[in-house]
Amino acid sequence: MPRAVVATAPEFETIFVPLGLDNEEEEESSSSSTTQPTAAEQLANNACSRCNKSYVRIQHLRRHIKFECGMPPRFACYYCPQRCKLKDNLLKHVRKLHAVEAKGRFKIYIDGVAKDQP
Prior knowledge:
The protein is of the alpha+beta class. 36% of the residues lie in helices and 18% in strands. The chain contains five helices and six strands, in the order E-E-H-H-H-E-E-H-H-E-E. The protein has helices spanning 23-32, 39-45, 58-68, 87-97, 99-102, and strands at 3-5, 16-18, 75-77, 83-84, 106-110, 113-117. The strands form two sheets. It has a four-stranded antiparallel beta sheet, with helices on one face. The longest helix is centred in the middle third of the chain and has 11 residues, at 58-68. The chain is elongated and about 65 Å long.
């Protein structure tokens, strides 16, 4: 929508006034526009049917259903008994707690098979 500049002098605040709308028309048009759902509404829409855990993003719910919900942990740490359901979580664990032992090469078990990670 085109706007007109009312004042631009340094001692004045710059004010933009929409052209072609009264204040009443502007209020009506802004209230009738569609709004994005709130985070609480998105959480309610993206809840797991098995465990009721909810997510804001649908892709996180899909990942949860595919790899986490009701699944045993697939990834085991080579250096301690820690097990994780997601590979990224185990890599964070190894980098944080076993950086000296790993010396830049991280070894994890995926479904019982040892794998080296860069």
